[in-house]
Amino acid sequence: MDPFEPTTPFYQVSAEKLGKGTGHLIDSEEVTGYVALADASATYRVIYESTSGIGGQVGKPIGVSGMIAFPTTPPVGDGWPVISWAHGTVGSADKCAPSMDSEELGPPGDSGLGLLRMINKAPHKLLNAFLRAGWAVAMTDYEGLGTYGNHPYLLGESEGRGIVDIVPVVSQLAGPDRRISDQYGIVGHSQGGQAALFGAYLAGTDYARSGTLIGVAALAPASNLKAGLLYVYEQPAPFGDLGAFYALFSNGVFGGDPGIERAQIFKEEALRKYLADYDTKARAEMSLDPEWMNVAPTDIFQPQGGDAWTRYWAQVDDFNPEKKITVPIRVSQALGDTRVNPVNTTLLLTQLAAIDGHGPITPVTRVIVSQPDPKVLGAHFGLLMDDTEISGLVGWMGDRLTQPGPESS
User: Fold this and answer.
1) Measured between alpha carbons, how far is 160 from 158 in angstroms, rounded to an integer?
2) Which one of 16, 112, 246, 354 is separated from 280 by 20 to 30 angstroms, measured CA to CA?
3) What is the value of pTM for the model shown?
4) CA 80 to CA 72: how far, in whole Å?
5) Sequence-ordered list of residues with C-beta below 8 angstroms from that of 292, at least 6 positions apart, any chain
6) DSSP secondary structure string for all residues of 75-87
């Protein structure tokens, strides 16, 4: 059996279902309980058509999964505007897809699949605030998470397509009683902050043909990774929690350039471990695995040098969301964040501001003084769940609307 083929029938997309164009709704089903947004009138799991961003397959029609939620308040004017949400790091295995979250993964908790479930739930506070303010919410899983294929972690060309292509799906699912506005915003956190910026970039090209993007908000976006990884990969001592990301970073690199010889990147035993884990384990599971967490990078990676490493670092450079974005941009960062370095975010703001024709940039930095529950998620997720950040972000996005709409809180 093809290891990339989903075992859940809903997520299996045959070739006959594709070919009707990006943003075409393929299938949907209503969901309830933990996975659904509490302040929605209804939340649906969806499959829609997008195109691949993986090297050698760019532009190939694919099915992508996600969720869509509608407000309880009646639409105003032209209808509900849409927030296209980009989620943070969960892993590259299908079971990591937020839309697949279920009790089968076990109870929410502090580690392993329980932590994955807590991470899946963390954005709900923000997304419910958008629902209460009169926005419909679309939540892509990204390419290869849930549906067929590999999810190439941090490959912006891939992530961005899923983000913009789910937007026209909202109006198809809505029906005549749920009017949907032409206007939409993109919001994302962590990996999703980086992905959101790539989505906003794609929305300014002729790739995205549906909707009017009014702004993009990136919370703690992953950026400027190369210098840090160059240092880490040559260290003779373990880096603990960062070890779980070695497979994910590399999987994204190989997604962008499938021709890189993996045996020139990983040592023999580490390559075996990578091939066994990258598409089967959640990031939170790899964070419990001593073969990633307690092994020095110099025992995992081959020595630097040669064509394979040159191509590897070129792909890491391409992860950086230093792209021309012409709509308003909001970037926020918790100063106490130990996952996304605030220094990298400051550099990203400088890089975005140096691009000719960029949209107005609103930088927001905030120290999270008290950590919200669950405390294990720390300041990185504290920013996402902070009341001041949420009200500021919802208000900022509401101010971007170009026609009278629902009040923002």
Assistant:
1) 6
2) 16
3) 0.96
4) 11
5) 243, 244, 246, 247, 273, 277, 286
6) P-TT-EEEEEEE-
